[in-house]
Design a protein that fits this description.
This protein is an alpha+beta fold and 546 residues long. The protein contains 14 helices and 17 strands. The strands form three sheets. Strands 8, 9, 10, 11, 12, 13, 14, 15, 16 and 17 form a ten-stranded antiparallel β-sheet that branches. A five-stranded antiparallel β-sheet has the order 3-4-5-6-7, with no helix packed on it. A two-stranded antiparallel sheet has the order 1-2. A hairpin with a 2-residue loop joins strand 9 and strand 10. Helix 8 runs parallel beside helix 10 and helix 10 packs across helix 12. It is globular, with a radius of gyration of 25 Å. It starts with a helix and ends with a strand.
Length: 546
C-alpha cells in the first residue's frame, strides 16, 4: 500500500470527527470544498501567465575576490562549516530535514556580516547547478522568492554577485517562475505563502525594472493582507513568530514601495503599522512567547533584533489573543477564534494555554515547536501535552481541523467559539470543545491575580468518571516539597500548591529557534474525578533567600 494511502487510513482510524464528516458528506449533509483553479487567484484574472521581462539594474558589481577562510552557515536546525573550494559540493550534500536544504537554497544564511567573497563563490556554485527554473525544491515559489529577496538585499549593500548578465537573467527568470506556481489553493486552503509570493514578485519588479512583475506582486500583497491578518492586525495563523515574519515582510514591501513612489505605498504602510502595533502586544517583559510554530526562515532572536519592537503592557483582547498585566505579573493567552486551529496555519492545540512572566522572568512558557511533521516529536509539540492546558481523558480541547470542514460542521462538533476575556483581576476562558466527548461539557478556566499570588481555577462540566490532566511548563527546575512544588527563579521562588493531584515532573524542550532548543520541565498533574469537576491551583512568588 502506498505510504500516502497508509497515512490517510491511519488518520481516519484515529480521528472520529473526520469519520463523522465523511459519513455526512456521503449523506450530503456537509458541502465539499469550494471549486477553485489552483495557482490562479480570481483577482488576477487576465494577468497570468506573467511573461518574461528584460531586467535592468544600476546595482554595482560585487568584486570577484575568492574566499580564503572557512565559513559557518547557520541553516534551519543545523550549522555547517565549509572550506574554500567546497562550495560546489555544498549544494549536492543531503540533509535529514528538507527545511535545512531549503534554507540553503533560499540563501537564508546571508547576514550583514557574511564575507562577500563567500557570497560570490556560493552564488556562482548555485548558478552552475540550478540556474534554470525547474519543478524541484530549489525553485519552489516560496524558496525562489526568498532567494531573490535575500540576494537583492545583499547586492544593495555589497554589489551584485556575478557574472552580471547571467545573474540579472536568472533573477529576472524568478518572476515568471513564481507567478506560474502561485500558492493559491482556493479560499479555504490558501496560506500566508501567497503573500510571500507577492513580496518576491514586487521586490524583483522594483529592483530589476520589471513593471508587470511589480504590478502583479503589489496586487497580491494588497489582496492577501485581509486573508492572513485579522482586524486587530494579528496574523490569523496562530503563531507569534510567524506574525513577526509577516510584519517584516510588509514593512519591507512598504519601504520599497515608498522609495519607488508606488501607488501601493500608503496601503502597504497601513498594513505594516497595524501588524507592528499588534506585535508589541505580544512582547512580554521576559521576551517574546513563542506560541505556535517557529519559522525556519530566521531565528526569533535575529528577527526581533531587526524589528526593534517595544512591549505594549496593559489590557488587550482581540481575535483570540489576550494580553494582561497586573502588578508584577504579565501574561499572554491564545485560543483560536474558531476553537479549531486555523487551517491552513501554524497554530497548536493550545486552547487554555498561556505564558506567564513575573516581572522579567518567564515562569510558565509555551515551548514552541522545533520542526514540522505529522508524527513523532513534531506532532507531540503541537499537541496539548506540550502546552499549559487541560485534557479530559487524554482528548485535545478541540479536534484536528481540516481545510474542507465548513463553519456549520465545526459548530456542530464543538459548539460556539471559545470566549477569552479580561476580568477585573485576571483572565477568563470558556469553551465547549470537550462537549463532543460522550461525558464532556463546557470547560471554564479563570486566572486571578492578587499581588504576588495567582490562582488558576478549572471547572469541567459533564457527567460520570473522568481523568483530568493539566500541564504547566517552566523553563526552570521544579522540585517537590511537602506542600507541592517549588520553582527557584532569579526573581523569586514560586511555590505551587497542586492540592491532591498526582504529580509527574519531566524534562522537555523549550524551542528557541527552528531545530534549536534548551531544557525546560513539564509539571503534569492528574486527577481521577467525577464530573462536574472544579479544582484550583495556587501559585505564590516569595522573595528568594539571600
Amino acid at each position: 500500500m502506498p505510504s500516502g494511502l497508509i497515512r490517510k487510513v491511519r488518520q481516519l482510524q484515529g480521528d472520529p470527527v473526520l469519520r463523522r464528516w465523511l459519513v455526512g458528506r456521503l449523506l450530503r449533509r456537509w458541502p465539499g470544498a469550494p471549486a477553485f483553479t489552483a495557482h490562479r487567484p480570481p483577482y488576477l484574472d487576465g494577468l497570468l501567465p506573467l511573461p518574461g521581462e528584460i531586467p535592468s539594474s544600476d546595482l554595482s558589481d560585487l568584486p570577484g575576490a575568492l574566499p580564503t577562510e572557512p565559513l559557518s552557515l547557520e541553516l534551519a536546525g543545523e550549522t555547517i562549516r565549509i572550506q574554500p573550494g567546497e562550495q560546489a559540493a555544498l549544494f549536492k550534500r543531503p540533509f535529514d530535514d528538507v527545511e535545512t536544504l531549503l534554507a540553503l537554497h533560499r540563501f537564508a544564511w546571508l547576514t550583514e556580516t557574511t564575507d562577500p567573497a563567500w557570497v560570490g563563490a556560493l552564488w556562482r556554485a548555485w548558478l552552475d547547478g540550478f540556474a534554470s527554473p525547474a519543478a524541484e525544491p530549489p525553485w519552489h515559489p516560496y524558496t525562489a522568492g526568498e532567494r531573490a529577496v535575500n540576494i537583492l538585499n545583499f547586492a544593495r549593500r555589497h554589489g551584485l554577485p556575478g557574472p552580471r548578465d547571467e545573474t540579472l537573467r536568472v533573477l529576472a527568470a524568478h518572476a515568471p517562475s513564481i507567478a506560474g506556481q502561485l500558492e493559491y489553493f482556493g479560499e479555504h486552503h490558501t496560506s500566508n505563502h501567497l503573500a510571500n509570493n507577492g513580496r518576491g514578485l514586487f521586490i524583483l519588479g522594483l529592483a530589476l525594472g520589471l513593471p508587470r512583475a511589480a504590478d502583479l506582486g503589489g496586487k497580491i500583497l494588497l489582496h492577501e493582507a485581509p486573508r492572513i491578518f485579522m482586524p486587530s492586525g494579528l496574523l490569523r495563523e496562530g503563531s507569534s513568530h510567524y506574525h513577526l515574519l509577516y510584519l517584516r515582510l510588509y514593512q519591507t514591501a512598504a519601504a520599497a514601495a515608498e522609495a519607488a513612489a508606488r501607488p501601493e505605498a500608503p496601503a502597504l504602510r497601513k498594513i505594516a503599522e497595524a501588524a507592528r502595533g499588534a506585535a508589541q502586544v505580544l512582547m512580554l517583559p521576559g521576551g517574546l512567547p513563542l506560541i505556535g510554530d517557529i519559522s525556519p526562515d530566521i531565528s526569533p532572536a535575529a528577527l526581533l533584533a531587526a524589528l526593534t519592537l517595544d512591549a505594549a503592557p496593559g489590557l488587550f483582547s482581540a481575535d483570540g489573543w489576550l494580553r494582561f498585566d497586573q502588578g508584577p505579573w504579565s501574561g499572554l493567552w491564545h485560543a483560536a477564534p474558531e476553537g479549531f486551529s486555523h487551517m491552513p496555519g501554524h497554530g497548536h492545540q493550545d486552547t487554555g494555554g498561556f505564558e506567564l512572566h513575573y516581572e522579567d522572568e518567564p515562569v510558565f512558557v509555551d515551548p514552541g515547536r522545533g520542526g514540522y511533521g505529522e508524527d513523532g516529536e513534531a506532532a507531540l509539540y503541537r499537541s496539548t501535552l506540550m502546552h499549559n492546558a487541560l485534557m479530559l481523558d487524554g482528548a485535545e480541547p478541540f479536534p484536528p481541523n481540516r481545510p474542507y470542514y465548513d463553519e456549520t460542521f465545526r459548530r456542530r462538533i464543538a459548539g460556539p467559539p471559545p470566549e477569552l476575556s479580561l476580568a477585573q483581576d485576571g483572565v477568563m476562558l470558556s469553551h465547549h470543545g470537550i462537549a463532543r466527548l460522550s461525558h464532556g461539557g463546557r470547560h471554564d478556566r479563570a486566572w486571578r491575580f492578587d499581588g504576588r499570588h495567582m490562582t488558576l481555577q478549572d471547572t469541567v462540566q459533564g457527567r460520570g468518571p473522568a481523568t483530568v490532566s493539566r500541564t504547566l511548563i517552566t523553563p526552570m527546575v521544579p522540585e517537590r516539597t511537602t506542600d507541592g512544588i517549588a520553582i527557584e527563579g532569579y526573581r523569586a521562588t514560586y511555590n505551587l500548591d497542586v492540592g491532591d493531584a498526582d504529580m509527574v515532573i519531566e524534562p522537555v524542550t523549550r524551542w528557541r529557534a527552528y531545530g534549536r532548543g534548551e531544557t525546560a520541565h513539564a509539571i503534569r498533574l492528574t486527577v481521577k474525578a467525577t464530573l462536574p469537576f472544579t479544582d484550583t491551583l495556587s501559585l505564590e512568588a516569595t522573595a528568594r533567600d539571600t
